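Supplementary notes for students who missed Thursday's class. We covered one full example, reproduced here. Read the sequence, then the structure, then the short commentary at the end.
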Amino acid sequence: MAVAPHLFLPPGDRVLSPFTGWSRAHWEALADRQLEALVPYATPRFAQYRLPGRTSWSGVVSDGLEGYARSFLLASFRIAGAGGEVDPRLVERYARGLAAGTDRGSGEAWPELTDRSQQMVEAASIAIGLHETRPWIWDTLDTRVQERVVDWLSRFVGAQTWDNNWRLFQVVSEQFLASVGAPYRKADIEGGLDRIEDWYRGDGWYSDGDGRNYDYYNGWAMHLYPLLWARMAGPGGDGGRAEVYRERLGRFLATYPHFFGGDGAPVHQGRSLTYRFAAAAPVWMGALANCTPLAPGLTRRLASGTARHFVERGVPDERGLLPLGWYGTFLPATQAYSGPASPYWASKGFLGLLLPAGHPVWTERELPLPVEESDQYTALPAPGWLLHGTRHDGIVRLVNHGSDHNPLEGPAQDDPHYAKFGYSTATAPETAPRAWERTVDGHLALIAADGTPSRRLRIHPLRCEGRLASSRHDARLPGHDDPFPVVTTSALHGPWEIRAHRLRAPEGAAVREGGHAVADGTPPHAERGPGWALARTSAGLTSAVVALHGWHEETGIAREVAANAYGPHSATPFLTLPQHPGGPGVHVTLVALSRDTVDPRALRASVTCAVDDDGVRVRVRVRFPDGTELEL
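Structure (token representation):
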């Protein structure tokens, strides 16, 4: 794909960057284009940026503040990284915005901070931006403006936040107050930092709050803010915490490159995916905090590859704006709290601009991603995930046996960005309205006589090591008081996942399992036969499912329109057992996602599966054509 010409990016440097062609100049040009594109949407005194798009639930004024705060984060990295040697109009715009936003009589005043308000999120970005640009903005402000900024931020002192990554917004905001000699509450800072200790699960992984909430917030929030706080607190002011945070980020980064495909795409999983470039934030922070295990050339390869991936697909758009979505506008990939300026948390992905131009991440030659060197298998016990990447097609797949984004107690949901068995760098989950009623992709469902499918709500991880992972969830059907437990084990081999389910079902219920949904600009090609089904895009991306045990020969293809972030037309192959006899049963499926030619007929004929069920323990043995054997 060609880089969008409206971005005016410099020529590529294939000597320094053989994989992406990108240098620091590309990052600066991309930042400048986005910042300049916002100007037509600014209010007269630059306190708000009111962008086109769907308004969030917080309202137009809050969305305007969000436009200022999140773009200020980007501007601050650009200003500080250049030592203030930028277009002076950039500095002036954000200084003027501070003055007007904190002036109640300006007509552009920001909403006051109140408990659990969206303003808390934006205040943290402003605090970080002010810290990083202190010589060029804060120190040059009129004393009255400084006082008004302090007054606005001071509403954080003693306030209540949501009990998740929001605790860290209070930490960095009050630390900025402390750094300028303003009143703050030490207990707020220490309490927030103490609270995230309750969510640390080991190996560099935090849950974002109580429960099993694992996604990119681990990198662009849970690791990022504590180390940004440490930069504010300064040497000796962190009470020894910074070293702990560095060690944890180092552990996380050791496996983080395994989440990225050969085309630079991050695995499409979790919420707030509209932040896009922000997926690169933790690798930049690792270099900035001098705690990364990644070579400088790999750090830039990952970050530049991710940015280039989106740029090549029209992000930012022809106006220079970041739309609500993944590539173009796609609202199902967002949340109700997302407003038209929400995507500008992508600014975190530009953190690397704080590193000087002579730093090794900018001067050393790019190195390949793990998936570009060899096939990869990575077990992550904390979130309950298996990653497998295949070098020949550059796809990374994520098998989910642990993250459900549900509270520990009370009502639970099956958000399609968390509840699926499978995610990847080449596909997205189907997100049609009320998707749970017809969800097929990445899902094993019991289906009641009235057509109601069971849902995968709370996921209970059982095992995650090597190439194997397993979990349990409780399937519920109308008319039955007790749930039907489903125990699932996944085993990996190349581009294939063997998925074995042991379940108990009522007589007459149907059982259905879907593979990955593939999406395209035109309806994907589909084929199906006895015990197999596939869907293929025009570019050759193929999703297939093959029945190995416990299925009927009947199969199907589920099609959707405007339900997938990767394209307007999508299709999912599935297997089915129309009438379960009742009682316990075992169902084994081969799930494939590849850019290779996939022949499910040959797979069904050549892959053997033996199931031994003694009523207590089930053993599933699978043998592949190359002689490899797996036991589940």
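Commentary. The CA atoms of residues 465 and 589 lie 20 Å apart. The two ends are 41 Å apart (CA to CA). If anything here is unclear, bring it to office hours.
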